[in-house]
Amino acid sequence: MPIKLPKCIPGKKPHYKLYYFDARNIAEPIRQVFTYAKVEFDDVRVTQEEWPELKERMPYGKVPVLEVDGKQLTESSAILWYVAEKYKLTGRNEWEKAKVGELNDILKDFRSELAPWFYAKAGIRDPETEAERYESVAKPVTKKFLERFSQVLRTHQGGFYVGNKETFVDFAIADYIFTLNKMAPDLLAERQDLLQHVERIHNLPQLKKYIESRKDTIV
């Protein structure tokens, strides 16, 4: 049957619809920003059966896509920055915003370099290569990037990555560390500071209930 995209009803408040698959991954920090800010949004979880037809109606044929009163925005970083800026989670001044952007780009590099092992481990792509890629990719890549994140945390007394208050990059890094710790705890065995940061973010009053009740997915 044809897939009908729900119509947006104009109003004083923007009507948000976030399209992504039934997974956390790159859409999860966006969901957490909305949740933290207590902003209602439609969390549209696209099934594999629905995707071929829906793909034709998405910009560039991919997700996540955010609809704002019917207007579409794609690319996870652009969406995340848009909603985080709107709800004051990008930093308190120009310098903090620049550092948040810097860390978000570093996280993107981390994801990209780790992808060959990550998707093999998740069973999404070339799962038979997981053991070899754990040694050749996962160990050296995580060591490099996790040390960077630890260094940044050590420079901030508040326990957040930028300034002394949470920003969207705390949500993004924490969720990725959370996922890695589920997939391969040995990679985080010596990074208790990063795991403590995950707990700190997941126990924020604005996020705690959501984190505890969200669906458990592989990634």
**What is the structural class?**
alpha+beta
H-E string: EHEHEEHHHHHH
Molecular shape: globular
Known CATH architecture of the largest domain? Up-down Bundle
CA radius of gyration is 18 Å
Arrangement of strands in the largest sheet: 2-1-3-4
Overall tally of domains:
2
Discrete helix count: 8
First-last Cα distance: 29 Å
- Multimeric state: single chain
Report the sheet-strand fraction. 5-15%
Low-confidence stretches: 1-6
CATH topology category name of the largest domain: Glutathione S-transferase Yfyf (Class Pi), Chain A, domain 2
The total of beta strands comes to 4
Largest sheet: 4 strands, mixed
What would the average pLDDT be, to the nearest integer? Answer: 94
EC number: 2.5.1.18
Pfam families: GST_C_3, GST_N
GO biological process, one term: glutathione metabolic process
Organism: Bursaphelenchus okinawaensis
Describe what this molecule looks like in 3D.
By secondary structure, the chain is α+β, with helices and mostly antiparallel strands. It folds into 2 domains: 16-87, Glutaredoxin, CATH 3.40.30; 94-204, Glutathione S-transferase Yfyf (Class Pi), Chain A, domain 2 (Up-down Bundle). 51% of the residues lie in helices and 9% in strands. The protein contains 8 helices and 4 strands. The chain has helices at residues 28-36, 51-55, 76-86, 94-121, 130-154, 168-183, 192-202, 208-213; strands at 16-21, 42-46, 65-68, 71-74. Helix 1 links the parallel strand 1 and strand 2. Helix 1 crosses helix 6 (168-183). It is globular, with a radius of gyration of 18 Å. The two termini are 29 Å apart.
